[in-house]
Amino acid sequence: MSLTQADGGSGRIDVLRNGVLHDGSASDGKPGDVWIQGDKLLAVLPPGAAPPAQAEPGNFTVHDCAGMVVAPGFIDVHTHDDAAVLDHPDMLPKLSQGITTVITGNCGISLVPIVTDEPAAPLSLLGRRQFRFESLAAYRRAIDQARPGVNVAALIGHTALRMQAMASLDSPASAAETQAMSRVLDDAMRAGALGMSSGVFYRQAYAADIHELSSLVKVVAAHGGVYATHVRDELRGIVQAIEEAALTARTAGAPLVLSHHKCAGPENWGRTAETLPLIERLAREQPIAMDVYPYTAGSTVLREDLVDGVIDILITGSEAHPEMVGRYLKDIAALWGISQKQACQRLQPGGACYFQMRQDDVDRVVAHPLSMIGSDGLPHDRHPHPRLWGAFPRVLDQYWRIKGTLPLAQAIHKMTGMSARRFGLGGRGLLKPGYFADVVVFDPDKVRDLATYAEPAQFSQGIEQVWVNGRLSFIGRDKAIAARAGRFVERSNMKVAS
Ligand code: ZN
Predict the structure, then answer these.
(1) Ligand 1: distance of its center to the CA of 190 in Å?
(2) What is the rounded distance in angstroms from the CA atom of residue 201 to the CA atom of residue 109?
(3) CA of 243 to the centre of ligand 1 (A)
(4) Has residue 431 been placed in a domain?
(5) What angle do CA 297, 388, 185 make, to 5 degrees?
(6) Which pLDDT score is estimated for 11?
């Protein structure tokens, strides 16, 4: 098709012909055609079926998808793209993976409602320039104005609420502070937030007790929202941390998403054999899901307490010593003739990849029926974790094609239909007439991540076309953005069949 072709508005029709359709529901792929009109899916038809009545000869454009998989656009349920969608609205790292919607505000960290020029850690994970939104309504307007390449749906971060409302972060919120935070959260839920996230792992939220958390999650529950949490402890205390998260959600009456579930630290390796049955047991009593990225390294701000002298630590950013970015902490420490902990102090503030997981744990979580895929990519790091550019194609390559632990339909479901249903993104995540036309076309023989720890900003291969709200937005062959058609996506309590 011609990229200069004018958008004919709601009348414009495209057909993705002869692909293998995976509709996002986890049912098996089958050959067929996907018809797009305007920003919606017009029809999903078997090969050779008569075109829909709206399609007349000459008024539609045919895209041959023979040999390709056609699926709903991927939903990245765990991002820190809050500011990136405004700073870099092309969103190339995400669009190029087939991602059409990002969920921002994870781990307790969101732009809303903080207004400052000097964001402290961990808010600084979102860069420094965009802390200017007191309300979700204001953020929403900015998104619609910036028109990023991907759709944006937002969680409100509990740490951000605390930092705005509380005098001291070292104790649980008082009744008045809880009330102040509840008002901001309620206002955000009315403006379309998906729910609240927390990051009680981080010092700024660690003092929050279950009363503070469940009081806020109740506000979310009243609007049909979700509670996502980076639990208090992913190391030795993982079981208690999961139980606390489940109790918080259950007390408040909200569905729970455990963020980037992992068993971190050498002494904890292998314990997904314990945590996954626990999560399954809890999930029989209350709605619980989790997200996961397919790598053995985590990444966050530089933290001395994670420097144990055993695991490898790769520096992804350092304000004090930018020349050390991309090098391993143990090499930096050796170069400077000091301990790794001392080197960590000297590099502050900054970020790092921590090789804190074992492959078999990651594999179990990725393959688990309650997990969804979320990149957790950090777009503001100078030398980011490769998950920013490669998480989704990596799941398809590693878990479907190479290891065979996930059938293709199941892998796609974890990136689409399940994600939309768990987070309340109505009208997305499935190939179904009337749904928004967010679609990815990929080559099942070629799809593969190329981003590595050494070279993290690499395009994946095999992602051929990405459609956002009915607009062809990324063309794999040219590695090029063709349009920016993303929107703010509000919470929808519409039930989407799984
Ligand atoms: Zn997190």
Answers:
(1) 25
(2) 12
(3) 17
(4) no
(5) 95
(6) 73
User: What is the spatial distance between Cα 60 and Cα 452, in angstroms, rounded to a whole number?
Assistant: 40
What pLDDT does residue 10 have?
A: 59
CA–centroid distance, 368 to ligand 1, in Å, is 19
Whether residue 112 sits in one domain with residue 64: no
User: 364 and 255 in one domain?
Assistant: yes
How many Å apart are CA 100 and CA 79, to the nearest integer? 13
Average pLDDT over residues 448-457: 97
Three-class DSSP category at 23: coil
CA 340 to ligand 1 center in whole angstroms? 23
Q: Is there a single domain that holds both residue 66 and residue 82?
A: no
User: Is the model's pLDDT at 375 over the cut of 50?
Assistant: yes
98/123 same-domain check: yes
Is 5 inside any structural domain?
no
Distance in angstroms (rounded) separating the CA atoms of residues 46 and 26? 18
Q: How many CB atoms lie within 10 A of CB 467?
A: 29
What pLDDT is recorded for position 5?
38
Tokens of 420: 């939309």
Instruction: Please say whether the beta carbons of 200 and 229 come within 8 A.
Output: yes
- How much distance in Å is there from the Cα of 230 to the middle of ligand 1? 5
The one-character DSSP state at 436 is B
How many independent structural domains does the chain possess? 3
What is this structure's pTM?
A: 0.95
375 and 409 together in one domain: yes
Distance 205 CA to ligand 1 centre (A): 12
Q: Residue 251 is which amino acid?
A: T
Residue type, 143: I
**CATH classification at residue 63:** 2.30.40.10
Picking from 439, 461, 440, the residue whose alpha carbon sits closest to that of residue 450 is 461
Å from CA of 106 to ligand 1 middle: 7
Give 480 Cα–ligand 1 centroid separation in angstroms: 30
Query: For residue 50, is pLDDT > 80?
Result: yes
Residue 54 in any domain: the answer is yes
Residue 451 belongs to a domain: no
The answer on 138 and 262 residing in a single domain is yes
Residue 260 CA, ligand 1 centroid: distance in Å:
7
| 438 CA → ligand 1 middle, Å | 27
CATH number of the CATH domain containing 317? 3.30.1490.130
Helix (H, G, I), strand (E, B) or coil at 117: coil
Quote the ligand 1 centre to 236 CA distance (angstroms). Answer: 17
Mean pLDDT across the chain: 95
Q: Cβ(24)–Cβ(431) under 8 Å?
A: yes
CA of 201 to the centre of ligand 1 (A): 8
Query: How many other C-beta atoms are found inside a 10 Å radius of the C-beta of residue 266?
Result: 13
Domain hosting residue 152, numbered range: 74-296+356-423
Indicate whether 122 and 233 sit together in one domain: yes
* Closest to 489 measured CA to CA, from 192, 112, 77: 192
